[in-house]
Write a structure and sequence with these properties.
Layout (H helix, E strand, L loop, with lengths): L5 E6 L2 H12 L3 E2 L7 E6 L2 E7 L8 E5 L2 H14 L23 E4 L6 E5 L11
Length: 130
């Protein structure tokens, strides 16, 4: 089995970005993991390692599959942080919740203007071949 272990996420301020994502997901983080990274421990086998850069940041997309209870809790934390969201990958932050693939999903753009998503039903499956 192949599993994703870590992702390096470029940031303007690695500490602030890691702190924000960790607080929204309610997961632990480490300000100085490996010296140059601020790591967000998404689950026991995956970290998001934020790295401060002065280079131009491209918009990256990161999606987390969560339970219904986790979805509701993250939405509440986004509200408390004053971060808007939407149910479509593009468009205004209208507070709507998408219903793609029989589940719920939302997108938001903080930290660092990356495109973050949570969903309750994954569509990332290889199609069945007949």
């Amino acid at each position: 089995m192949i599993e994703l272990d870590h992702v390096i996420v470029p940031a303007r301020d690695r500490v602030a970005s890691a702190r924000l994502l960790a607080s929204l997901l309610d997961v632990p983080w480490d300000e100085t993991a490996l010296g140059m990274f601020s790591a967000v421990y998404v689950n026991p086998g995956l970290t998001f390692d934020f790295l401060t850069t002065d280079e131009a940041l491209s918009v990256e997309h990161f999606c987390f599959r969560v339970s219904d209870a986790e979805f509701d809790a993250i939405v509440r934390r986004l509200e408390a942080a004053g971060i808007g969201w939407r149910g479509d990958v593009r468009g205004p932050n209208d507070g709507q919740i998408g219903t793609a693939h029989g589940g719920r999903n939302i997108y938001w753009d903080q930290p660092d203007n990356h495109r973050w998503e949570i969903l309750t039903v994954s569509y990332a499956r290889q199609p069945a071949h007949g």
